[in-house]
Amino acid sequence: MAAGQLFSRTTQALFYNYKQLPIQRMLDFDFLCGRETPSVAGIINPGSEGFQKLFFGQEEIAIPVHADIEAACAAHPTADVFINFASFRSAAASSMAALKQPTIRVVAIIAEGVPESDTKQLIAYARANNKVVIGPATVGGIQAGAFKIGDTAGTIDNIIHCKLYRPGSVGFVSKSVCSYSYSCLCQFHLSHIKDRFWVNSLKDHFHKWSMGASSIFILRCI
């Protein structure tokens, strides 16, 4: 990947706390973008092991399920994104455990209500170790035509309508992203879209995007 680029068409993630719909939406997006490999390499469901059947296009696939973060990272060393769907009670601890894994580069925390003191610890650790945290309290993020986190951009119909399955040249950061935002931005060949950031600052993301070749201009919406 280019310097400053968070995601690409080969990015794979580990999904913490099994949720069928967000994972299936990620796989549908992958297929629509023409990816060769699914973006979800493995699922972490504490206390459970085995496989979970989902669809990649018309093909049914079996995604490995692991009982803990360490085992999942060891089994999937190329998966460098950690998508955390844990509740606010355990989101900080599981996110910190993921950040401490050498293979994990980006952590996305979906939960709202993570204590501020825990968030500050995540900030300090991520910055000291050159890692990226999206959230807490985020819908996620998307790189058009390449990779998306969980429920970002909604249904497959909305993704098609907004043309998010193709690469673009606009970086967009917002505290609250709605379907209308995607619809408007698709007219400008959207490249990246991110929802609310707490741990990494707006300046951090502007700097990363400015280093890449895909973002011609960057928008901020408050």
Architecture blueprint of SSEs:
Elements: E1 13-16, H1 20-33, E2 40-44, E3 50-56, E4 59-66, H2 69-75, E5 81-84, H3 91-99, E6 106-109, H4 116-128, E7 132-134, E8 141-143, E9 147-148, H5 156-161, E10 170-174, H6 179-185, E11 190-194, H7 202-211, E12 217-221
Parallel strand pairs: 1-2, 1-5, 2-4, 5-6, 6-7, 10-11, 10-12
Antiparallel strand pairs: 3-4, 8-9, 8-11
Helix pairs in contact: 3-4
Describe the overall structure.
It is globular and about 40 Å long. It has a seven-stranded mixed beta sheet, sandwiched between helices. Strands 9-8-11-10-12 form a five-stranded mixed beta sheet. It has a single domain (13-221), classed as NAD(P)-binding Rossmann-like Domain (Rossmann fold), CATH 3.40.50.720. The chain has helices spanning 20-33, 69-75, 91-99, 116-128, 156-161, 179-185, 202-211; strands at residues 13-16, 40-44, 50-56, 59-66, 81-84, 106-109, 132-134, 141-143, 147-148, 170-174, 190-194, 217-221. The chain is built from seven helices and twelve strands. With 222 residues, it is of the alpha/beta class.
